């Protein structure tokens, strides 16, 4: 890799760190090509990016970003995982690590907050952003539907009373 390629790699990683909300650091000692391909496929399906980057170049890209706290984690054969949805990145990484012990979660950062491996695992247990949005929307819509039901009830009763009087008037 010549200097120009290194500069481009650092600039590319720096732009990713500026746009993403989470970075997870993994250690992947001994993963076979098939296992890495399966990991990348799962990551792509979840909208997550998995990249093996040179530690020195990744440290250069981290300088001055909010993820600067994960620099000490970049030792040995590491890979970076990132996504705009923090739960998806953590969940996909943790799920693969459960099925394959060769992938070790070292830690990561959620914004400026540096997390250890346990923090990443705890983040993976949270519901996804879509699930949280659906719950919130359900909570917001629920009172409106109840209110509509309450408001419809008196109108329905008035209509039934008027219909009863109309039937009574026809019978008489």
TrEMBL record:
Its job: Forms part of the ribosomal stalk, playing a central role in the interaction of the ribosome with GTP-bound translation factors.
HAMAP family: Ribosomal_uL10
Complexes and interactors: Part of the ribosomal stalk of the 50S ribosomal subunit. The N-terminus interacts with L11 and the large rRNA to form the base of the stalk. The C-terminus forms an elongated spine to which L12 dimers bind in a sequential fashion forming a multimeric L10(L12)X complex.
Organism: Elioraea tepida
GO molecular function: large ribosomal subunit rRNA binding; structural constituent of ribosome
Name of the protein in question: Large ribosomal subunit protein uL10
Annotated GO CC locations: large ribosomal subunit
Protein family: Belongs to the universal ribosomal protein uL10 family.
Alphabetical list of InterPro entries matching this protein: Ribosomal_uL10, Ribosomal_uL10_bac, Ribosomal_uL10_bac_type, Ribosomal_uL10_CS_bac
Signal sequence bounds: none
Pfam families recorded: Ribosomal_L10 (PF00466)
Taxonomic superkingdom: Bacteria
Key words of the record: Ribonucleoprotein, Ribosomal protein, RNA-binding, rRNA-binding
PROSITE patterns noted in UniProt: RIBOSOMAL_L10
Source lineage: Bacteria, Pseudomonadati, Pseudomonadota, Alphaproteobacteria, Acetobacterales
GO process annotations (BP): translation
